[in-house]
Amino acid sequence: MKYPKEVLTKSKTGKIEARILEEEGQYYIYSYEDIASGKKENKTKLILKNQDKHKEFFLIPLKERGKFLALESEPKDEIAVWDPKTKSVRKII
């Protein structure tokens, strides 16, 4: 198949590839905080949400700065987070 020039990219090995959209939707990133000390835990969760479903991933920082390991976790039926900007609870799932 012939692809428009705008969707083509070159891999590290020099191979030309086309970027193909698989899904679109919203995302949420939230962290965890120890309620006793107020310190941020070294855990981050990424939620990818489309119209029908959502996927959840724990993001684990690697030694190399800016790189993470994403581990898929079992999706929950409901997720609420504290929004410090509005000082209120937000249900994201």
Poorly predicted runs of 5 or more residues? none
- Helix/strand class: mainly beta
Q: What is the domain total for the residues?
A: 1
The average pLDDT score comes to: 94
Structure annotation, total helices: 0
Helix content: under 10%
Overall morphology: extended
Proportion of residues in extended strands? over 45%
Helix/strand order? EEEEEEEE
Quote the distance from N terminus to C terminus. 38 Å
**From the alpha-carbon coordinates, what is the Rg to the nearest angstrom?**
18 Å
Task: Provide structural commentary.
There is one protein chain. This protein has a four-stranded antiparallel beta sheet, with no helix packed on it. A two-stranded antiparallel ribbon has the order 1-2. Strands 7-8 form a two-stranded antiparallel ribbon. The chain has about 90 residues and is mainly beta. It is about 0% helix and about 50% strand. The chain starts with 7 loop residues before the first strand and ends with a strand. The protein has strands at about 10, 15-20, 25-35, 40-50, 55-60, 70-75, 80-85, 90. The mean pLDDT is about 95. The protein is extended, with a radius of gyration of 18 Å. It has one domain (about 25-90).
